[in-house]
């Protein structure tokens, strides 16, 4: 117990320590508030604001979409189709498989569809890809949450004459704190993904203004900068990683606060 | 605890009831995952009285109760044959509407299970899903039902706080009030006092005795003393069969069937 605890916190601090040690000297207000200027990738002025904004748009939109699509799917699988049936078992297996498919596969498939439809690499393409990538996360997490709902609760609403949909609404209320975790997991996967956005979202030095234009994302910005031989640019890569980590940290804390407020009525 | 496999069950005796039956169970068979759980049950449940279903654990008491409001249907691989008539209407008919049937029956489960909402919303939930939107009416229903179960004075100042903050006995009364708020005709209790302390148990028992003037009540219990205290009629179920049905004193004091005799004397548990 103690060894595993120490090794987990240890590796977390190691990661944060390394990116802080390497990135902190390069972090500046200019870096997080400006778009790249000419020569940014050879160590000159500008920042990664385009990528911060791009990542937030991409992850935010995909998470919202994945939640809106994923929750009804999970409810359907749990409440509307007969439990233990072939359809239920095979659908859940399918989502398990989808859950495990690496994001580059999603990227490749989305890319080929985009080529076929004549859509170029854009924020929209990225949002669709990442939504597809995160739906299985939402579905499987919510599904597991719904399995923890006591049968008695379902029986209570049903015996009051509630329809399946009315029962589902109470169940959603019951698992609400857990839904935040599902959203958090989806957001974390969405904001950290490189392979899925590489082919579909492209990259741009401009701030993302339109959904049909390419947009920069933080993981890709880190990737590009890290592959540079120039120490200045490499340092900025670690600074970008630090920014990404901070964003995730803020989201995690916010989610926890929201979830704990929701626990008020939990049993 | 004694060996009882050698005892043969006899068919249920037909008993002429003094009052009209509210529910009639006819040739009811229930199979769960291929296992025959309830075997050919025939029973008339009389109006405005308390009928207790007794029997050893695993005999099918709870299954029988849940068959009465069609809660069994939702479980995996359940097959029900035969019919259950409520006011002469078969609830297992093809065109029977499940939500409508369940609305007629309030279920009081083994442990109180408040909905994840406030005390007020717990009671108002039923009326709300059945279309009541008027806040005044809802407030009236909540007050009436909480008074019915003697909870009003205890919670009137904290109707907006979570129902989970109540003691377990209060929660069970809240659940009873919640069931009554949808204006059922029948109350089904599934060992409703097994999680409660003696005082709360007594409160619930007295409430049920009060309520039988307006409702038909069916209770599942494994406590013989409770069955004796509250019920007018008793059904003894053994191995999925309805072994004996009759007035409380007849079944408990002068049981006709040898298995009932053994159970009542405590040889089978």
TrEMBL record, chain B:
Organism per entry: Sphingobacterium litopenaei
UniProt protein name: Phosphate ABC transporter ATP-binding protein
PROSITE patterns found in the cross-reference section: ABC_TRANSPORTER_2 (PS50893)
UniProt domain ABC transporter: residue ranges: 23-264
Entry keyword annotation includes Transcription: no
InterPro entries membership: AAA+_ATPase (IPR003593), ABC_transporter-like_ATP-bd (IPR003439), P-loop_NTPase (IPR027417), PstB-like (IPR005670)
One Pfam family hit: ABC_tran
Keywords: ATP-binding, Nucleotide-binding, Phosphate transport, Transport
């Amino acid at each position: 117990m103690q060894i595993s605890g120490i090794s987990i916190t240890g590796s977390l601090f190691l990661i944060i320590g390394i990116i802080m040690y390497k990135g902190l000297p390069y972090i500046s207000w200019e870096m997080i508030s400006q778009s790249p200027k000419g020569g940014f990738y050879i160590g000159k002025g500008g920042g990664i604001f385009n990528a911060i904004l791009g990542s937030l748009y991409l992850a935010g939109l995909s998470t919202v979409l994945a939640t809106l699509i994923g929750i009804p799917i999970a409810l359907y699988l749990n409440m509307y189709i007969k439990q233990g049936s072939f359809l239920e078992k095979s659908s859940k297996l399918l989502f398990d498989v989808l859950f495990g498919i690496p994001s580059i596969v999603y990227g490749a498939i989305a890319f080929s569809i985009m080529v076929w439809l004549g859509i170029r690499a854009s924020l929209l393409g990225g949002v669709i890809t990442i939504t597809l990538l995160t739906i299985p996360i939402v579905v499987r997490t919510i599904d597991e949450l719904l399995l923890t709902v006591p049968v008695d609760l379902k029986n209570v609403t049903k015996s009051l004459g509630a329809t399946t949909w009315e029962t589902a609404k109470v169940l959603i209320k019951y698992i609400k704190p857990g839904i935040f975790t599902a959203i958090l997991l989806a957001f974390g996967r969405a904001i950290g993904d490189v392979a899925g956005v590489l082919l579909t979202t492209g990259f741009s030095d401009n701030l993302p203004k339109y959904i049909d234009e390419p947009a920069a994302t933080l993981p890709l910005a880190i990737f590009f900068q890290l592959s540079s031989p120039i120490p200045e640019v490499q340092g900025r890569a670690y600074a970008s990683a630090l920014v990404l980590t901070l964003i995730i940290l803020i989201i995690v804390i916010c989610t926890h606060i929201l979830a704990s407020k929701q626990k008020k009525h939990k049993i | 605890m004694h060996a009882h496999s050698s005892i043969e069950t006899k068919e249920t005796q037909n008993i002429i009831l003094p009052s009209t039956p509210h529910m009639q169970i006819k040739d009811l068979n229930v199979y769960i995952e291929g296992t025959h759980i309830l075997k050919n049950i025939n029973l008339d449940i009389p109006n405005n009285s308390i009928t207790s279903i007794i029997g050893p654990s695993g005999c099918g008491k709870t299954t029988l109760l849940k068959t009465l409001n069609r809660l069994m249907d939702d479980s995996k691989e359940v097959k029900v044959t035969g019919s259950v008539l409520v006011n002469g209407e078969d609830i297992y008919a093809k065109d029977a509407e499940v939500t409508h049937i369940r609305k007629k029956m309030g279920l009081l489960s083994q442990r109180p299970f408040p909905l994840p909402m406030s005390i007020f919303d717990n009671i108002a939930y039923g009326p709300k899903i059945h279309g009541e939107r008027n806040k005044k009416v809802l407030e009236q229903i909540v007050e009436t039902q909480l008074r019915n179960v003697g909870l009003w004075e205890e919670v009137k100042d904290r109707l907006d706080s979570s129902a989970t903050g109540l003691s377990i006995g209060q929660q069970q009364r809240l659940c009873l009030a919640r069931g009554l708020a949808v204006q059922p005709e029948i109350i089904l209790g599934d060992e409703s006092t097994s999680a409660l302390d003696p005082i709360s148990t007594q409160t619930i028992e007295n409430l049920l005795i009060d309520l039988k003037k307006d409702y038909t009540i069916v209770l599942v219990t494994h406590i013989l003393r409770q069955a004796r205290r509250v019920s007018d009629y008793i059904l003894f179920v053994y191995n999925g069969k309805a072994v004996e049905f009759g007035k409380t004193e007849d079944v408990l004091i002068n049981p006709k069937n040898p298995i009932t005799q053994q159970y009542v004397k405590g040889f089978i548990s």
